[in-house]
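Entry:
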Amino acid sequence: MTSLFRSVLALFGLLFLLSQPLHLQATALPNGTMPLTTSDGVALYVRVAGHGTPCVFVHGGPGTGSYGFEKLAGQPLEEKLQMIYVDQRGSGRSASHAQLNYSLERQVQDLEEIRQQLHLKKWVVMAHSFGGIIATAYAQKYPQHVQALILANGILNLPAAMESTITYGYSLLPATTRPPLDSAMPLPQRYFMVSAMLQQQKLYNQLQYASDSTAARVSRLMQGQTSNHDFAANLFKAPGRYVEDFTPATASLTMPVLVLTGQQDYITGPEHYKSFLFPQQRVVVLPGRHMPFLDNPKEFNQAVQGFVRKLPRR
């Protein structure tokens, strides 16, 4: 075979590959549940579902797990995204760490180890609520692996969000039943006191959801579900960087960012998104409270899918 003939064959081979759809040129990530173990021995629950751009979901809570979002909001997203549902260490269906290492640095490293074990060069990182802190810290450390960020009612300043919850939550309590609120009391103590009173008087759902029917759907889904709450139980014993204000860091994160926020979300704070400084951010304010993907699923999915369609092809 002459060198000229070999060159012609190589050229035809290259033209053939370039003519194929992009998804045929890359190895697809298989769908299914794939328990992964971190470098320090924690078994994490990971489930992949859907088709399209890989997107890891970073749940909130802290420590709620991804089950509720996966079952109630995931399916429409899976039409355009290959969703990667992860339960963080000490949360949901994942195991605890023997020495209770739930630091932000370790949660960020867990995400990176998942990406490596799934052999993904880049992925979209979607976070809800408290997960915004973890997602933003991950994007800070590994910007080269983040194709885009999607923050759904994302918290980037935990103390500010807790103050918002306290102020609005306290106003929901009947004046005759609420004790005086001492502003000198430590923030976690005030937060848990108000949260407990809201739970006792069955008012906490008014913070979370725009309607009682949404709250009932979530309650029915979660009945009988066993869930690990170790992360949540230990977070405030050593909060570390979780109480850092991450909003200034957003100015240096240049990936595309979609910010979705509830108009009456007093858990995150209805004005919190205005402190974000991402150079390439798009903001969508939706009617509702802390769960826009449940209260306004059509508008939520349209915003996400429209954003993903405009991302540069990898």
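The first helix runs from residue 3 to 19.
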